[in-house]
Amino acid sequence: MASVDLRLLRYFLAVAEESHLTKAAARLGIRQPPLSQQIRVLEAELGVTLFHRLPRGMELTESGRALLDDARNIIAMVDQAVDGVRRVSQGEAGRLTVGFTGSAAFHPFVPSVIRRFRESAPHVHLVLEESSTGELREAVAEGRIDVAFIRGAHADPGVQMETVLEEAMLAAFPADHPAVKGRTRKRIALSELADESLILYRRHSGPGLYDAIIAACSAEGFSPRVTQEAPRMLSTLSFVAAGLGVSLVPASLRRVNIEGVVYVSVTHPKALRAPLNLIWRDAPLSGAARKLIDEARRQRDASPAAESQ
């Protein structure tokens, strides 16, 4: 049986179910003589007679009846397997691991992309992993994570990257800081932070944002006094609330209502922006990964100028 062509089994099923060569040929979309010939080929391969040829039709022999259920099961299993492969290829099934940094999760873009993906591919097993930008880049490069939303400004060799949005940066002050205490100050120039103790997201974890902040300060004519480096971006806000200094964070972190932290817009330089990038391995992608990337592009292109409030 292992050598029997599946096409022959499909021909056999059609004839068995129609009990007539002409009707089976019409169902299959072929002519009757070739179908009759293929049935004889199958019988020769199996070494049995599958049908009694009657004046007005075809009747299964005992051997034919024995083959019928097995043939149906074989064809059903093959069709199911083919359908499963196609669904995985089209991103409708399978498994997808999506990584994101802690700060990325606070921008509505990321949960929106994931929600739309889930709606379009409910049978994909989705795994979400939060980590630092550095760890996510490494995991994507090694194939442990399929796609990831990161804050870094560059990708590792063998990893593709696209910017999905850029948002403004905010200065986060302790609530009792003289610059904001008792006032409703909403804007500040970066140069006004020259004498402040800065708390930044650890460079190893997020070199893109770290280097952008240092470069922007240098362009404003000062070298920042970095007194603390936090392991996670959200940790920087805890350090700010504790009065250890001032931090610069993406505007979407304003949604983190930490008591003791006051956010102020940085008006200059305007080039100081926090990118949110999507990365994936430069290799053949699963259908689910392609679907999520396409969804991110659609949402990005639908509002190209959108930034966090």
UniProtKB/TrEMBL annotation:
<keyword id="KW-0804">Transcription</keyword>
<protein>
    <submittedName>
        <fullName>HTH-type transcriptional regulator BenM</fullName>
    </submittedName>
</protein>
<keyword id="KW-0238">DNA-binding</keyword>
<dbReference type="InterPro" id="IPR036388">
    <property type="entry name" value="WH-like_DNA-bd_sf"/>
</dbReference>
<dbReference type="GO" id="GO:0003677">
    <property type="term" value="F:DNA binding"/>
</dbReference>
<dbReference type="InterPro" id="IPR000847">
    <property type="entry name" value="LysR_HTH_N"/>
</dbReference>
<dbReference type="GO" id="GO:0003700">
    <property type="term" value="F:DNA-binding transcription factor activity"/>
</dbReference>
<dbReference type="InterPro" id="IPR005119">
    <property type="entry name" value="LysR_subst-bd"/>
</dbReference>
<dbReference type="InterPro" id="IPR036390">
    <property type="entry name" value="WH_DNA-bd_sf"/>
</dbReference>
<dbReference type="InterPro" id="IPR037410">
    <property type="entry name" value="BudR_PBP2"/>
</dbReference>
<dbReference type="Pfam" id="PF00126">
    <property type="entry name" value="HTH_1"/>
</dbReference>
<dbReference type="Pfam" id="PF03466">
    <property type="entry name" value="LysR_substrate"/>
</dbReference>
<comment type="similarity">
    <text>Belongs to the LysR transcriptional regulatory family.</text>
</comment>
<feature type="domain" description="HTH lysR-type">
    <location>
        <begin position="4"/>
        <end position="61"/>
    </location>
</feature>
<dbReference type="GO" id="GO:0032993">
    <property type="term" value="C:protein-DNA complex"/>
</dbReference>
<keyword id="KW-0805">Transcription regulation</keyword>
